[in-house]
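Below is how a single chain appears once it has passed through the pipeline. First comes the sequence as given, then the structure the pipeline wrote out for it. We keep one example in the README because the format questions we get most often are answered faster by looking than by reading.
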Amino acid sequence: MSNFTNSPLISLTNLSPFNNSPRNQPIRKITIHHFAGNATIEAVSNFLRQPGRNASYNYGIGSDGRVVLIVNERDRCWGSSSGDNDHQAVVIGVANNTGGPTWGISDAAFETLLNLVRCICTRNNIRQITYDGTRSGTLTRHNFFAATLCPGPTLQARFPEIAETMNRLLGANTTTPRPSVYTFSIGEVVQFTGGGVFTSSTAAAPAHSRGPSRCRVTSIATGRRNPLHLVSEDGGRVHGWVMAADVRPIPPALPPAPVRTPEEIMIDNAIAAGLITDRAHWLGVVTGNVKPVAANVRRMMQNALDAIDAAASR
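Resulting structure:
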């Protein structure tokens, strides 16, 4: 059970008014953002105090590795565009030491991030970190809940590493799930969910960061770090290798509903009204080659349906 203490790793406290106090759920998740800039912890915490800003983290980490407390752990910050997630998560923002499209982070910031996550898990009795590439895990990303590139491709690519490191340090006795991987084929049209686009299947740093796009699989490198080569089909500017965790299949379109003829509609209405039971027989009669008979049957059946409707309306 969460005890709602704050981390002793903080170097600065600069509380934001943008929170709900107290949170309505125990702490059971960690959500990681990036600053989208190389702001100091003083600058970012002052920014998140500005009137009308309406956003906050629980903690911020600078490129120098220092930590600022922005919203107490007992309170829900306004961080991930999801109230349900924010009430369960401690939300951490991390400074970038390079700009887009890669949005890199310093070694000092990443080391502090690992230490802070471990501290949060230990104090709140989170015994295992799960990251499966969906919002159901205990390690979540901002872009699970909003159309954003946050936490940036460099940090996002290290989420499996964060989970594995935490579970080793926490002594978790189960294997951390890898991000969900589907089976794709060359030529298949898929949904790229957003993230890094790499120049090769083995590249560690992305060349670009792209948003969601409908793409075609043009090559597959099984077992590689970035195993799928995608090309956008909707103008999304994806052209390169991507991580499998950032790709989802597109469900096949449902077949169109059959279009019923006026005769079929009438027969179905007559069956519903209890006038007839054998659909195939009567459909054959009203559409048959003996046109006077067909016309008479259609007229009588429609008259009966009209009479039922008239009686029901009285």
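The two ends are 64 Å apart (CA to CA).

See the next section for the split statistics.
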